[in-house]
Design brief:
Blueprint lengths: L9 E8 L3 H12 L2 E5 L3 E5 L5 E6 L13 E8 L3 H13 L5 E4 L3 E7 L5 E7 L7 E2 L2 E2 L8 H5 L16 E8 L4 H10 L3 E6 L3 E5 L7 E4 L15 E8 L3 H13 L5 E3 L2 E5 L5 E5 L1
Length: 283
């Protein structure tokens, strides 16, 4: 569908901080179904295809637990290739005794759960884009109950959850921010996203290429919420994949026009949204 490939700008990778790397690795391998791509004493890159990483874990020095009422990660969202995959992981999580929430968002069907540190994970499947309801530039989304009976009809006899499928993507990220006006300016004028849904005065959903959203932002932790300490559990950064070097240069120029700087260190381009959420820009 092209929502997570060039020429769309999309979230390609998320890096989260955890309190105990060994404990988190056990969870992300046994419960979520990732494999290890690369590992050091304090960091691990996780993969589903054995070649690329869409999620990394790191244990900061002097790490402290996740801080409440701050900006940062609300959830990261893993997009599965097939509805059968979502049905299979429902059975898998139930058999493992893992508590999870669920929702039908009209554009997608989703499960929600938390890792051992309280980082929230969404696991979802998109409905066919032909079923999405657009009113001009706005896509209809809701928080309706998920029809598990219908979902589980997609289980293929004999099929079992065998870990995250090879085609799993980082579908989107949803962030806590301290306010929405400057945030909208940053993501729209600076990074080139379109607002595709407004949830009152509390949340925005943004995308490129007419996806339902690559990025969500909300003020549910309070307007003026502070940035969490650097050594706390939560999000370290997320990576935006842009189409080409020309798009990178244009984005840097647009960010500078609104007073936002981009720094380069060891070939990595980094910027921060108005709430201090760290973003890496890559091709």
């Amino acid at each position: 569908m092209g929502f997570h490939s060039k020429p769309t700008t999309f979230v390609g990778h998320v890096n989260i901080k955890v309190e105990n790397l060994e404990r988190s690795l056990q969870y992300y391998q046994e419960i979520i179904g990732f494999d290890i791509l690369e590992q050091t004493s304090s960091t691990t890159k996780l993969t589903t295809d054995g070649k690329t990483s869409i999620l990394s874990l790191e244990q900061p020095e002097n790490v402290i637990p996740k801080q409440g009422r701050t900006t940062g990660l609300y959830h990261f969202a893993l997009l599965l290739p097939e509805k059968t995959d979502l049905a299979n992981i429902v059975v898998h999580l139930t058999e493992k005794g893992i508590r999870f929430g669920s929702s039908d968002h009209l554009v997608s069907e989703a499960l929600y759960l938390h890792d051992p540190d309280g980082n929230e994970i969404e696991i979802y499947i998109d409905r066919d884009p032909s079923e999405w309801n657009w009113n001009g530039e706005a896509v209809a989304m809701a928080v309706d109950p998920l029809d598990f009976e219908r979902l589980l009809e997609n289980i293929v006899p004999g099929s079992l959850w065998k870990g995250m499928p090879e085609g799993t993507l980082m579908g989107h990220i949803h962030l806590h921010v301290s306010e929405l006006r400057k945030t909208e300016e940053f993501y729209v004028q600076g990074l080139g996203f379109d607002v595709v849904n407004r949830y009152g005065a509390q949340a925005l959903f943004l995308s490129t290429g007419k996806y339902h959203h690559h990025i969500g932002v909300n003020t549910w932790n309070g307007v003026g919420a502070p940035k969490p300490p650097e050594n706390s559990v939560g999000m370290e950064s997320f990576t935006l994949i842009l189409p080409n070097e020309e798009a990178i240069k244009e984005t840097i120029d647009n960010l500078q026009k609104i007073g936002v700087s981009v720094t380069e260190n060891d070939g990595r381009l980094t910027t921060y949204d108005p709430s201090g959420n760290r973003i890496e820009l890559a091709v």
